[in-house]
Write a structure and sequence with these properties.
The chain is mostly helical. Helix content is 72%, strand content 0%. The chain contains four helices and no strands.
Length: 111
């Protein structure tokens, strides 16, 4: 007797660890991207200062978002990455985004 199975093999990328890794890396990316702007804005509002000091931080944030999108969109649609499950794809691209954001913050943010 020949039995056919309709059960797909379990993919390692479907593990919940990939979801938690993706959440961890993308949270760090968001903190590094929007943290300086929110911090400078909060300090300026608390001390009743003009928000002109926020403009350089906003420029750095826009550059970070642009470079991250420019680098990650082609990687996201690359055939090797596209074959991965969605949580694994986000967990894989999260550290890349974090490195890009941190590099821009350290190079442009200190200038």
């Amino acid at each position: 007797m020949h039995v056919t199975r309709n059960v797909k093999p379990r993919d390692l990328a479907d593990w919940s660890a990939c979801r938690y890794l993706a959440l961890f890396f993308w949270s760090w990316t968001a903190l590094l991207t929007f943290g300086p702007v929110l911090l400078v804005t909060a300090v300026a509002v608390a001390w009743a200062q003009p928000l002109t000091s926020v403009v350089p931080s906003v420029k750095v944030t826009v550059i970070q978002l642009g470079l991250t999108a420019t680098a990650l969109i082609p990687l996201y649609f690359a055939p090797g990455v596209r074959r991965l499950a969605r949580p694994a794809r986000y967990a894989l691209l999260g550290p890349v985004a974090t490195v890009i954001v941190l590099a821009v913050l350290l190079s442009i943010g200190t200038a």
